[in-house]
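ugh ok fine here u go
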Amino acid sequence: MPGSTKTMGAVTVAALVLVTGYTVALGSNGWLWFGWVVLGLITLGMIVSRTD
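structure:
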């Protein structure tokens, strides 16, 4: 995986941890989960479209 894709994957995982922590501490926020899903889809698109 290229460096930018690895970085994006790490940011996506970190965002998941933060959103989950926020949900546990303060309750669910649909916009945060929506944002995480969009970030995950962008990351998935980068992985799928990468060139070797």
